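Figure 3 (text version): C-alpha cells given as input.
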C-alpha cells in the first residue's frame, strides 16, 4: 500500500508537523492554515490521542536499551508520525488493531507480542495512563431558543434506554449549577455526537460544564440592561449561551409582570432588548461563527451581531458600542486545563514557558482593553488554562494598572459570582499579591482533581463609581430547571466509575488518612451544594406553579371576553 493511501497518512503528516514545531499547539497547526489543508475531525482526534500516549510509546520503544526500537527499525523511518500513530492504534486505541497495510505496519505487527508485553508492563506502573475525560459525564446544554428542557429530556431518555443495557445508566440528571444543562452517563458520547439530529437541529449543544461558567456569570450578574460584547467569540458556544440566558431572562420578566400592569404591545413582539456583538479576527473562524449563530440563535428579544475584526482595535468611544455595559473575554490560552489536550503530555521546556508568557501578555492587554470602555460596568475574564501566569497573574496585573492614577473616581474590583456561590474550588491566594478575599472571588475547576469537568478559570469584575452604590449586584441562586422532575446530579456517574475501577495498591497509612480527610471535606461541600440547589429548585417550582395559575386565569378571562364579543355581535 502506498504511503499516501494509508488510512493514517493524514494523521501521520499532522503529527510530523507537530513534532517539528513543538512551540505551537496542535489546534493552531491543524486549523489555522485553512482551505484544503485542514485535517478531518477523526485525523485530528487520532493525533491528539497519539500525542497523549507519546511518553508511553517512547518508553516502550526505548526499554531495554532500545530493544523494540531497533527491532522495528524505528529510526530509519522518514515518516515517524505515521509509525507513532500505528503503534498507538495497535496498543492503546479502542479496537487495538492497525487498518490498511504497508511496510511500517508489517514491521510493527511482526513484533506485536513484544510490544504488547512492554505496553502491559508500562500500564501496570502508570495506572493513570487512560484519558480522565473519558470518565466525565456527557454534558448537554439545551438551547432554550429552539426547544425546551422537557422535550429534550424525553428524547434523550428514550435514546438512553435504547443504547444502555446497564441498570442505572439511563437516567438524565439536571446540573446543580448551570440552568438548562443536562448530565448524561459518560458512555452516551458513543451515540450522542455532532452528527446527532438534536445537535444538527440546534436544539442542544455538546458543551463541557466549566465552559458554561463564563456566559452564566456574565448574564447572571447585573440587571440585564444594555448590550454585550463577546470579545473572542468563535466558534460561538459561549456566545449562543449568553444569548440564550438573556433570552430566558427577558421572557421570565415578561411572565412575572402582573397582568393589570402589562402594557398592550403593538407590532413586532420580538423587539430587540439587547445586542451581543460577537467579535472574531480570523476569517475562517468568523465564517464558522456566522454559521453557528444562524443555527443556534433565533429571532427574539436578543440579537447577535457577528463582527469580523480584532477586538483590540475597537475604539472604546465608538458610538456603536455606547450602550455596551458588559464584556465577556475568553481569549486564546494554552488550553492546559483540557484534560485530553495533547499538549498536556509534553514537558514544559523553555519554548513552552515563553509561549505561556506571551499568551499572558496578550491576555493582560485584552483585559485592560475591556476595562477601558467608558460605559462598561462588568467584565468576565476566563481561560481554559491551569497556569497561574494566565489566570491570577493576569487578573492582578490588570487591576493594578487600570486602578492606578484614576481621576474619575472609578475603580475596578473583583466580585464573587453569586450564581456560583456554592462552587468549592477558588483562586490561589498570594499569587500576584492577591488577598484571600480576592482569591475567593475567583473560580477554578480541575478535571484531574475530581471536578468532573475540564480545568477552567473565571474572574468577574465590577466597576464602582463614587456616585454609585459600591455593593455588588445580588442575583438569585441559579440551578437547573427541576420543575419537570429531573433529579439533580450529585456525582452519581463518578461513583459508578469509581466502583468499577480496579483496586489500587495499598498506600502509606499517612497518605490514606490525608486522603480520607480530603474526601470528607469534598463530601461536606457537595452535600451543602446539593441542599442549596434543592432549596432553589423548590422556589422555582413554586414560582412556576404561580405562573401556570396566572396563565389559566388569563385563559378563562379570554374565553369570557370572546363569549361576550360573540353575544354582542348576535344582538
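Below: residues designed for each position.
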Amino acid at each position: 500500500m502506498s504511503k499516501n493511501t494509508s488510512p493514517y497518512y493524514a494523521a501521520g503528516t499532522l503529527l510530523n508537523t507537530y513534532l517539528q514545531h513543538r512551540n505551537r499547539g496542535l489546534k493552531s497547526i491543524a486549523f489555522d492554515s485553512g482551505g484544503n489543508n485542514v485535517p478531518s475531525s477523526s485525523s485530528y482526534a487520532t493525533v491528539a490521542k497519539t500525542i497523549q500516549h507519546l511518553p508511553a510509546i517512547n518508553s516502550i520503544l526505548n526499554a531495554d536499551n532500545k530493544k523494540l526500537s531497533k527491532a522495528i527499525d524505528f529510526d530509519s523511518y522518514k515518516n515517524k508520525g505515521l509509525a507513532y500513530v500505528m503503534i498507538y492504534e495497535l496498543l492503546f486505541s479502542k479496537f487495538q488493531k492497525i487498518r490498511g497495510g504497508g511496510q511500517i505496519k508489517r514491521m510493527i505487527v511482526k513484533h506485536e507480542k513484544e510490544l504488547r508485553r512492554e505496553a502491559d508492563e508500562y500500564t501496570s506502573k502508570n495506572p493513570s495512563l487512560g484519558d480522565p475525560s473519558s470518565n466525565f459525564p456527557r454534558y448537554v446544554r439545551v438551547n432554550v431558543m429552539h426547544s425546551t428542557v422537557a422535550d429534550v429530556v424525553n428524547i434523550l431518555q428514550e435514546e438512553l434506554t435504547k443504547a444502555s443495557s446497564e441498570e442505572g445508566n439511563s437516567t438524565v440528571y439536571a446540573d446543580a449549577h448551570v440552568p438548562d444543562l443536562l448530565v448524561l452517563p459518560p458512555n452516551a458520547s458513543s451515540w450522542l455526537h455532532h452528527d446527532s439530529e438534536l445537535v444538527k437541529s440546534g436544539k442542544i449543544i455538546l458543551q463541557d460544564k466549566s465552559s458554561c461558567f463564563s456566559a452564566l456569570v456574565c448574564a447572571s450578574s447585573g440587571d440585564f440592561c444594555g448590550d454585550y460584547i463577546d470579545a473572542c467569540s468563535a466558534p460561538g458556544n459561549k456566545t449562543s449561551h449568553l444569548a440564550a440566558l438573556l433570552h430566558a431572562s427577558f421572557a421570565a420578566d415578561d411572565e412575572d409582570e402582573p397582568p393589570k400592569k402589562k402594557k398592550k404591545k403593538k407590532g413586532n413582539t420580538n423587539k430587540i432588548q439587547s445586542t451581543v456583538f460577537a467579535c472574531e479576527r480570523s476569517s475562517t473562524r468568523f465564517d464558522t461563527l456566522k454559521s453557528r449563530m444562524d443555527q443556534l440563535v433565533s429571532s427574539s428579544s436578543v440579537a447577535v451581531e457577528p463582527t469580523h475584526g480584532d477586538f483590540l482595535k475597537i475604539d472604546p468611544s465608538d458610538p456603536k458600542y455606547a450602550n455596551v455595559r458588559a464584556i465577556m473575554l475568553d481569549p486564546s490560552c494554552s488550553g492546559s486545563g483540557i484534560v485530553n489536550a495533547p499538549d498536556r503530555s509534553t514537558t514544559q521546556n523553555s519554548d513552552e514557558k515563553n509561549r505561556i508568557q506571551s499568551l499572558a501578555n496578550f491576555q493582560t492587554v485584552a483585559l485592560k482593553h475591556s476595562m477601558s470602555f467608558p460605559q462598561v460596568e462588568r467584565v468576565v475574564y476566563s481561560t481554559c488554562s491551569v497556569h497561574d501566569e494566565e489566570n491570577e497573574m493576569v487578573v492582578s496585573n490588570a487591576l493594578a494598572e487600570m486602578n492606578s492614577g484614576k481621576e474619575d473616581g472609578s475603580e475596578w474590583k473583583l466580585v464573587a459570582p453569586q450564581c456560583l456561590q456554592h462552587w468549592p474550588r477558588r483562586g490561589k491566594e498570594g499569587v500576584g499579591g492577591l488577598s484571600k478575599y480576592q482569591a475567593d472571588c475567583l473560580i477554578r475547576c480541575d478535571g484531574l482533581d475530581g471536578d468532573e469537568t475540564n480545568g477552567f478559570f473565571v474572574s468577574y469584575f465590577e466597576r464602582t463609581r463614587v456616585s454609585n452604590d459600591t455593593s455588588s449586584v445580588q442575583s438569585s441562586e441559579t440551578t437547573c430547571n427541576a420543575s419537570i422532575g429531573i433529579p439533580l446530579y450529585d456525582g452519581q456517574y463518578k461513583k459508578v466509575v469509581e466502583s468499577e475501577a480496579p483496586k489500587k495498591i495499598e498506600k502509606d497509612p499517612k497518605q490514606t488518612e490525608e486522603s480520607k480527610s480530603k474526601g470528607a471535606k469534598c463530601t461536606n461541600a457537595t452535600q451543602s451544594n446539593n441542599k442549596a440547589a434543592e432549596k432553589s429548585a423548590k422556589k422555582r417550582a413554586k414560582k412556576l406553579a404561580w405562573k401556570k395559575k396566572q396563565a389559566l386565569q388569563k385563559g378563562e378571562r379570554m374565553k369570557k371576553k370572546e363569549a361576550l364579543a360573540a353575544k354582542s355581535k348576535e344582538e
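Residues 264-268, 467-478, 501-512 have pLDDT under 50 and may be disordered.
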